[in-house]
Amino acid sequence: MKHESHAELAAALWPDKKDVPVKLLTCRHCGRRNRVQVPKAVLEPSRCECGACGQALFLTPEEPLTRISSSAYEHSLDRSTLAALKALPGFPALVRWLMSNLGERSLRLECLSSTVMCGEAQFPELVKLLEEARHGLDFPSQPTLFLSESPHANAVTFGTEEPAVIVYAGLLDHLDDTEVKSVLGHELGHLHAEHGLYRTVALVLAGGSGLLGTVGQWLSFPLQKALYKWMRCSELTADRAGLLACRDLSASLGVLMKLAGGHRPGTRQRTKMKLAPFVQQARTLAKQEESSWFDGLLAMLLTMNQSHPFIAWRVMHLLEWVEHGNYLDILSGHYERAKNPVAA
Ligand SMILES: [Zn+2]
Ligand SMILES: [Zn+2]
């Protein structure tokens, strides 16, 4: 999204100067509290210095978030819906049965037989982007990367013993490198936050490629509903990881916009898709949330049997975290660290 300047983007995201969010951040060098305007901090972090010691308030894009714990960025809805899913009678037994009878091995074999495994000799560009995302998040293990032919702009993660990320080729048509890095960071976030087991279960139930397509035939309704709901809420945690990996808000929002509207030649020839009106669209949705009918709609959308709707909702939650959550605290070096780096 390099066509929109910092100034244009700031004006689009925070049109009313009175409403520009402000945050108090502690300098990691001298401990002094600094009052910073969120737009400047988010869009031009390298220009933010501590008022007392003059050193950089934020880590540079190249500095890793050393030993960051996934709890540092886990969304509360992800945590609560996973707890609800795990508490459902029959779910732990189902997980055990599936993993011992089919497990991630079946998915890995499917990848090896029908996609292209990436490495130093095969799509090294893609592997380099994954490595950059892994470095940024200080993610300890190296998942296998597969490229799969598909017109859809999508990526999938599975596995706990030998985690894997599958990038659908359509994604590379739609996104630039920073945006792809954001997607790979999103997928690493799923693994980091230990979504691997339950996403593997969902994939196995769906027969591999259709994600949630056939899962309904296997599960009782409450179980199905709880699994869909958690799957969707887990996206909010992973979106945060994507932003922490690329540290470029316009790239993370650009990915979501392109997931919603595509970026095919037919679209590109006609008009340049702009982030500003799309963000306004998400803000309109956020305002609706304040009215009570939205709760019913939210519940319905959360359990819908589709793979990627609800994108404006993700935009809204990501912006909310940037403005009022701990995104900037993390980038200024203040975050929860993993107790055991190996088990991060
Ligand atoms: Zn300082
Ligand atoms: Zn995801």
UniProtKB/TrEMBL annotation:
Cofactor: Zn(2+)
Domain Peptidase M48: 121-321
Pfam families for the chain: Peptidase_M48
UniProt entry keywords in alphabetical sequence: Cell membrane, Hydrolase, Membrane, Metal-binding, Metalloprotease, Protease, Transmembrane, Transmembrane helix, Zinc
UniProt record, GO biological process: proteolysis
Domain of life: Bacteria
InterPro entries: HtpX_protease, Peptidase_M48
Cofactor binding mode and count: Binds 1 zinc ion per subunit.
GO molecular-function term, one example from the UniProt record: metal ion binding
UniProt similarity note: Belongs to the peptidase M48 family.
Protein name: Zn-dependent protease with chaperone function
Source species of the chain: Cystobacter fuscus (strain ATCC 25194 / DSM 2262 / NBRC 100088 / M29)
